[in-house]
Amino acid sequence: MTLQIIPTSPIDGQVPGTSGLRKKTHVFQQPHYLENYVQSIFDGIGGVVGKTLVLGGDGRYFNAQAAQVVLRMASANDAAKVIVGQNALLSTPAASRLIRKRGANGGIILSASHNPGGPDGDFGVKYNIANGGPAPEPVTSAITQAAAGITQYCILTAQDVDLSQPGLQDLHGMEVEVVDPVADYASLMEELFDFAAISALFQSGFTLRFDAMHAVTGPYASAILEDRLGASPGSVLNAVPLPDFGKGHPDPNPIWAKDLMDVMMGSDAPDFGAASDGDGDRNMIVGRGCYVTPSDSLAVLAANATLVPAYADGLKGVARSMPTSQAVDRVAEAQGLDCYATPTGWKFFGNLLDAGRATLCGEESAGTGSDHIREKDGLWAVLFWLNILAKRRMSVAEILADHWARFGRNYYSRHDYEALDTATAEALINDLRDRLPTLPGTTAGPLTMTEAEDFAYDDPVDGSRTTGQGLNIRFDGDARVMLRLSGTGTEGATLRVYLERFDAEALDLDAQAALAPVAAATEALTNLRARTGRDAPDVIT
Ligand code: VG1
Ligand code: CO
Which ligand is nearest to the CA of 280? Predict the structure, then answer.
């Protein structure tokens, strides 16, 4: 084994987005690319001398090789220890849990989350801090700066570390501890939820289908839902993580989890369906004949939280990303809870959770979580729903109908325009931003605008300000649209258009029909079709 110091120079585009650095796999496989970025993480956090890190990934193509590079670099940079998931696997929530439980200084998660994997797919690297959560803005800025000025990296020449069995090993003076990726996470879930009640629900004949989408959640879902809780064998589908996710798109929404949706809308659907994404932090919830939007799911969890042992004493507060529907705000108002609206990305919830200001957090993009860790958590959301169903003994559809009857319904949908020409998409946003001050009081299509803001967030805990987080336009009649560009895509620009309208009386409309006036107003406001040359969104969720 020899220690090498390799001269290098900065590589364009090594700037983390909404959730880590995400690029095409072949970009990450270029000489020095991964090494430059890993060294920049180490340099950006003030070095790793004597530190303990957690390491794992979602099992996608290049995961295993990249994990070996991180280990050799951590050792060469004098880290004391790396705790790594067996076979270099860890779901994002399990990594967050492990960082917290072991008091590690941070962790590296190898994942491009819901983006497809494989040689032609995407790869990614995320850094999480000691609270278990995604690196906040000051840390990602320091990493970006380090990447922009990098001159060398340190790496060991060594054989691959055997990650196939749990146990301790030495890598040139650094301890490598291989751990079962599921055990700690599963025991945390058992502490939070009423496993006895959920087991009894399954014993009563309740049926479930969980689609792991060939991604990292499979082993977790099989161990918890089938082995511990007694869901019938075969309830967890696509449970073996594959490097290319079975050529699928591991994004749990009605489009990409269509197989599950078809089953759930069919005549002999099980009682409950769920899916998770590449790295296990997202969730989709669907009842028999009844899809639950992530925004509604967050509101339902908040309204029913005291049925779960961990939240039996009530919530400290709730938080949602700004584009997420305001359904949870109504629950918070009814319960006298503080409700925060943050920019998109889980990193903005960390301070609220650490400060004990919020217990539940959620994003419209199928992310829900709580203060049990510092990441969104797909399987946790599924268990939360199962706990509610076990206690209330109603169907998903009945729970939703009951919720809307109490709180009214926030019709909600997101329209994505993918792989747009970057200049076109940026110009569309910039033009609209320039016009914001003139909009209130004027009309757009069928609606009158009441407010228009370029969303900026003042963190109530550390006082930091984050600007340019999306254009938020409110209309008469309790409706709004928000527009922003994605920070996780790897091809051109993805424009996200978030549509919302509240209705206290008409609770059973088709969501797209209910939102048609908001969509028409958005088209009138942006001239989106002509500008992008697109007749319709690529993905509607
Ligand atoms: C998207 C979602 C955002 C989520 C992020 C990471 O970001 O909109 O809510 O936090 O992905 O999720 P963007 O910038 O593309 O809109 V994950 O599960 O992909 O790490
Ligand atoms: Co994810």
Answer: 2
